[in-house]
Known about the structure:
The protein is mainly beta. It has two helices and 13 strands, in the order αββββββαβββββββ. The strands form two sheets. Strands 1, 2, 5, 6, 7, 8, 9, 10, 11, 12 and 13 form an eleven-stranded mixed beta sheet that branches. Strands 3-4 form a two-stranded antiparallel ribbon. It is globular and about 50 Å long. Residues about 1-25 have low confidence and may be disordered.
Amino acid sequence: xxxxxxxxxxxxxxxxxxxxxxxxxxxxxxxxxxxxxxxxxxxxxxxxxxxxxxxxxxxxxxxxxxxxxxxxxxxxxxxxxxxxxxxxxxxxxxxxxxxxxxxxxxxxxxxxxxxxxxxxxxxxxxxxxxxxxxxxxxxxxxxxxxxxxxxxxxxxxxxxxxxxxxxxxxxxxxxxxxxxxx
Length: 182
């Protein structure tokens, strides 16, 4: 477990080192990625304004069985271009593992490789839009944003201060929020 956290921290440091711009504003002042009908959720980090996007990968309005998510960088610190995750990033930090949900056709469970303590369920809302269902503050919610607050330590491995989860209650639409330290 410690080795995985160490590797994720190293990936964060390397990503910061090669980023074109460092953002020092609070998480509420970061630019938001443009909306998309297939957007499941995205991850923002305090190190820069680049965003990891997780979009549904649909074939005939169903999740593609082998690769149900298309994950990539949106380089907001540059020109807003898309860029594939590197092998290291997919394997150790931002990638995912998936399996079908038993007895629930077209629903998929995923785990982000760097944090396997909670599973994300890919499903569809009442209007047929793809959603990521996740436990936020003890409630099943539509996850739409993850914030990772990182503190530079002066050496190779930054410190993850906390993670914030943002979602909506699927029944009421009310905002749901949780902050935790991994």
